Amino acid sequence: MTQYLQDPALWGLVAGTPLAASVIYRGRRTSAKLRRQNSELENRHRELQNTFNEAVEDARLRAEEATKTALKSAMRTLQGLANEQQLVISKLQGKYGDQEILQDLLEIDHMNSQFGRRAQSVAVLCDGWLGRQRAVASVYDVARSAKGRIRHYTRVEIRSQTNFAIVSQVVEPVALVLAELLDNATSYSAPETTIDINIRTVPKGVCVIIDDAGVGMNEEEKARASRLLSGEHPVGVTELGNPPQFGFAVIGVLAARYGFSVSVDSASPYGGVRAVVLLPQELLTSMPEPQNPTVTDAAAPVDGDEDATTPGGLPKRRRRGAIAIVPQTRSGEDRGPVRSSEETASIMGAFQRGTQSGRSADPSREGYENP
Amino acid sequence: MTAPDDELGPESVELVRPYVITNGRGLPDRDRFDLITLVTASAGDRRTDRLDPEKRSLVKLCEGGYLSVAEIAGHLRLPIGIVKVLLSDLAEAGYVQTRTPVPPAQLADIQVLQEVLDGLQARFG
After folding, report:
1. What is the nearest CA distance from A49 to chain B, expressed in angstroms?
2. Of A143, A253, A309, B34, which has fewest CB within 10 angstroms of its CB?
């Protein structure tokens, strides 16, 4: 044992142990401190990251908002111009309806409709409105209106009609949705193929079914489409991609806003996409009476008692009656001419003056009239 | 859900544009239908429920007798060229018949005029 006592290594060990212990202890303390600092730093870092993310999100939202506001007001101007232009084109079509220029006017009209639709679509994505008031219209007419808003409209065939009509406030939204679906259908199918529209009555309402013979969509595209169409995750104008894909985003926003549903997940019998727009009963109504009156009674019959003659043997002149251009007034025929309120007042005044002068008149001054 | 009033534009033009009604077809030859060509619905009961609404109202319009092309355009509020396209379709499918207007010279029956003149001269002459 003593030999160990003399061993310097032992003394070294004895001296070294507390040293080592203190070194280890200090090391532990330092590492604990470091750990503490580390976790503090981590927390700070996380906080900073959160603040940064919030700031970025905030900036993004503000940028999105600013973009939307700017685009919305720009689109409103464009929508207004498209509407005005359409009115002018309509007037010209009426004015030059019998001339060859009508063909060109129809083409301009078609381009203007497409232009108006584009402006409407962007406006919808910017939380804007469609900016057109419509009367109640049949589902068939709404489908035809939608057809007229896309470039290759002659490829679209509407196979069926129904007696159902769409309430006025959703006429324009449904037309725009159908137009976007038709635009997709014509864009993703061969130019010589047709796009079929079928209108079916179902227990829940009316379905408008659009079938194309295109290439269809893969699973990824279908997933993206159904996410957009649900309208639950509205897409910002900055997330549309390049080139921007408006269609499904616009449809999703409109369907959610007006309460109808659109799905594109089934395959069409022609191999392409089948899009189904389901309009619930709340958005449907029955067709109002046709605006064009039946003027069967207005058209002058030419065969009739033409050969009636007077007792003297001369052919009787039959009043042909001008063919009523505005036959609605026929029902009011017995009401006599319409007078303005001033005329009525002056007539009443004259009548009063007449009776007054009659009552107070000096018989010797017959014909006297109060001024 | 309705938009605030100031968001709505003025009442717009017809929902279905004329080029959609004709499905983009060219206008028919000018000489086929004149402004004063007379049109009437063909006799016999033809089913019109598969026709477009415009064609249906056109046939209905002409059921009572003869109407000129110009008058039909006025009633339907469509450009005359568009009405001519519809008419040429309907005439082809046998829904309507057309008649060129009677030349005015035939309306003035010379014999009737002569009789009137004779009668007047006999009484007052």
Report:
1. 41
2. A309
Nearest to A131 among B8, B50, B78 (CB): B8
The total number of structural domains in chain A stands at 2
Beta-carbon-side half-sphere exposure of residue A312 (alpha carbons within 13 Å): 11
CA angle A250, A251, A256 (to 5 degrees): 105
**For residue A267, is it within any domain?**
yes
Position A45 in a domain: yes
Q: Which of A88, A93, A168 to mutate to test the interface with B (most CBs of B within 10 A)?
A: A93
Q: Does B43 touch chain A (CB under 8 A)?
A: no
Q: Across chain A, where does the E strand assignment appear?
A: 137-138, 156-158, 164-166, 195-202, 205-211, 261-267, 273-280, 284-286
pTM to 2 decimal places? 0.69
Position A317 pLDDT exceeds 60: no
Per 3-state DSSP, chain B is made up of helix, strand and coil in percentages (nearest 5) of 45, 10, 45
Q: List the domain range (segments joined by +) for residue A180.
A: 134-286
Q: Tens of pLDDT along B27-38?
A: 777 667 888 888
Q: A258, A286, A314: which is the final residue of a domain?
A: A286
For residues A174 and A264, membership in a common domain is answered with yes
Query: With bands split at pLDDT 50, 70 and 90, how would you rate the model's confidence at A85?
Result: very high
CA distance A248 to chain B (A): 21
Hey, are the CB atoms on A90 and B14 less than 8 Å from each other? yes
Q: Quick one: A91 and A142 in the same domain?
A: no
Question: Would you say residue A264 lies in a domain?
Answer: yes
Which architecture does CATH list for B5-124? Orthogonal Bundle (1.10)
Minimum mean pLDDT range among A15-24, A49-58, A362-371: A362-371
Cβ contacts of B80 on chain A, cutoff 8 Å = 97-98
Q: Is residue A273 part of a domain?
A: yes
Minimal CA separation from A233 to chain B, in Å: 20
Domain identity same for A19 and A97: yes
Among the partner residues A83, A154, A323, nearest to B9 by beta-carbon distance: A83
Q: Which of A257, A130, A144 is nearest to A197 (CA)?
A: A144
